[in-house]
Specification:
Number of helices: 0
Strand order of the largest sheet: 1-20-17-22-15-13-14
Helix content: under 10%
Strand content: over 45%
C-alpha cells in the first residue's frame, strides 16, 4: 500500500470576495509541483460562491468535469444549449471533448452555494461534448456506498469517459465500510466532507484528503457521523 495525505489546511486557498475557494491540487494561482494530480484525478476544488455571483462563460476541452453541490444551488448554461440548476443530492457531469463554453452561477441572491468541482483526465480525447445530471437518493448512501459516477453506460450512475468510479457514503458513528477497488491499476482518493474517518492507519478530519494505491481494498471507520467521497481512478499518471 502507498498513500499520500493532504490535510485541509494545506490546500491552496483564494478568496475573491464573491468566490472563496480551496484547491487540493494545483489550480489557477496555486501551484505546487508535488500536487499536480492523483493518477487521472487532476482537480478537486471546494468552492463557495456568494449569492447572485458566479463564473462567466469560459472554455474547456478534453476534460471530464464533475460538479457536486454540498449546500445551495448552482445554475449551469453551456454552448450545447443545456440550461438547468443542480442542487444538493444531485451530481452533474460534463465531457468537454472537442470543446465547449459554459457558465456557472448561484441563482439565489441570499444564499451561498458550496460545491465541489472535480476534473478527471479523459480516456478518449476529442469526443463529442456531452452533459448530464442526476438526483441521487440520500437514503441509498446511509451506512453504505452509493456509486454516482461510473464508466458503465448501463446502470444508476452517471457515465464518465474514463475508468473512474465516484462514490458517496454517509456513515453513522462506529460504522465500518469496506471498499473494493475495481482494478489493481487503480487508486482511490478519499475526501472527507464532514466528521472524522479512520482509514489505512490515518484519521481524516473534515476536508482532509488521502490517496491510496497499490491496494485491492480499504476499510473506512467512522469515528463520528461522517460524509465521505471516494474517487477511484487509474494510476497511469501519478504526477
Amino acid at each position: 500500500m502507498k498513500k499520500i495525505i493532504h490535510r485541509a489546511n494545506t490546500r491552496g486557498h483564494a478568496n475573491h470576495g464573491w468566490l472563496d475557494t480551496h484547491h487540493t491540487f494545483s489550480f489557477a494561482g496555486y501551484y505546487d509541483p508535488s500536487r499536480m494530480n492523483f493518477g487521472m484525478l487532476r482537480v478537486l476544488n471546494d468552492d463557495v460562491v456568494a449569492g447572485g455571483a458566479g463564473f462567466g462563460k469560459h472554455p474547456h476541452d478534453n476534460m471530464e468535469i464533475v460538479s457536486i453541490p454540498l449546500t445551495g444551488s448552482l445554475k449551469h448554461e453551456d454552448s450545447m444549449g443545456n440550461s438547468g440548476v443542480i442542487k444538493t443530492n444531485e451530481v452533474q457531469i460534463m465531457s468537454a471533448g472537442t470543446g465547449i463554453l459554459h457558465s456557472e452561477f448561484n441563482p439565489n441572491e441570499n444564499e451561498q452555494v458550496n460545491f465541489l468541482q472535480i476534473w478527471v483526465f479523459p480516456k478518449q480525447h476529442n469526443i463529442e461534448p456531452r452533459y448530464d445530471q442526476k438526483a441521487f437518493k440520500p437514503e441509498d448512501r446511509l451506512n453504505k456506498i452509493q456509486t454516482v459516477v461510473s464508466p458503465e453506460k448501463e446502470g444508476e450512475a452517471l457515465w464518465i469517459n474514463q475508468d473512474a468510479y465516484f462514490s458517496l457514503a454517509n456513515m453513522e458513528e462506529g460504522l465500518e465500510l469496506t471498499y473494493d477497488l475495481k482494478s489493481p491499476q487503480h487508486g482511490v482518493y478519499i475526501f472527507n466532507l464532514s466528521g472524522e474517518v479512520a482509514v489505512a492507519d490515518e484519521v481524516l478530519a473534515k476536508r482532509d484528503g488521502m490517496g491510496i494505491y497499490e491496494v485491492d481494498k480499504l476499510t473506512l471507520q467512522a469515528k463520528e457521523k461522517s460524509d465521505v467521497l471516494l474517487m477511484e481512478v487509474p494510476m497511469t499518471s501519478r504526477g
